Amino acid sequence: xxxxxxxxxxxxxxxxxxxxxxxVDIDDINNGDDNVFASGKYVVKQEGEDTVHKNRSYDLSITxxxxxxxxxxxxxxxxxxxxxxxxxxxxxxxxxxxxxxxVTIESHPHSGRxxxxxxPCNHAKVMKKIIDTIEMxxxxxxxx
Length: 144
Prior knowledge:
The protein has 144 residues and is α+β, with helices and mostly antiparallel strands. It has helices at residues 87-92, 123-136, and strands spanning 57-65, 70-78, 103-107, 114-118. The protein has a domain at 57-136. 14% of the residues lie in helices and 19% in strands. Strand 3 (103-107) and strand 4 form a beta hairpin.
């Protein structure tokens, strides 16, 4: 069927009692391969590109560093598909001034996995920045 031959649906008429076609009863739908919406009668707008932006995410854990006698932050990163990030990918998300200086990749003391660690001497500045960012975006920092 050519697109010019398809019926135009007025958005104001959707759901209106004067609508010409009868609504499909869910009990009458055949559970086979028939698709009532594939009749060619309606056109679904196709976007030119994906408008959903996928982001990397990080788990944050905090341990106590007995040497520096202060909390220590650990970051475990995940890709858009949920895969653990490599060291290279983690450093792509960290400002060059901090990569491999303030933030290093080390073995987490409890999990044994290689994770990004923020050096304890910068813990206070980093925590302040994280909390400010959460609040700036309308969130409320919470302990879980």
